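Journal club prep, notes for RB
We'll compare a predicted complex against what the paper describes. Inputs for the adenosine-5'-diphosphate case:
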Amino acid sequence: MAIERTFSIVKPDAVAKNVIGEIYSRFERAGLRIVAAKMIHLSREKAEGFYAEHKERPFFGALVDFMTSGPVMVQVLEGENAIKANREIMGATNPAEALRGTIRADYAVSVDENAAHGSDSPESAEREISYFFGADEICPRTR
Ligand code: ADP
């Protein structure tokens, strides 16, 4: 199986709930390794650029308001099929549809405040990782 990297965000609602560690534990239990991480408070410009593909959607303004409402944790996860594995750990975008035991089922309250982000394809993973991290900030396993 392919070792991949994916980009992940613990969103402002989950940081406010004090469940960063709970969420990191889920990544680790699933065999994903955190190879880069930092806490940041997104500017509107940074959030708008990150979600540029949604800029024509009716929820875009609310999404940017939410993503800039408090600090987030951004991280790079590495492991076998990391992109799909992380999407499974997160659960469906709408927590009402997320499987039991997923991050969104357990910590999200609504589709607009849904606890976590994860890249949905190799192309988006590459773009999103480089949007937040320089190559010298990523620390792959050395042994
Ligand atoms: P995902 O985060 O699961 O990849 P999308 O890329 O479709 O989902 O959407 C990005 C984010 O935009 C979602 O995580 C959610 O926060 C927000 N969003 C998506 N759809 C809606 C909606 N119908 N109403 C409000 N917010 C939404």
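Talking point for the session: The first strand starts at residue 3 and ends at 10.
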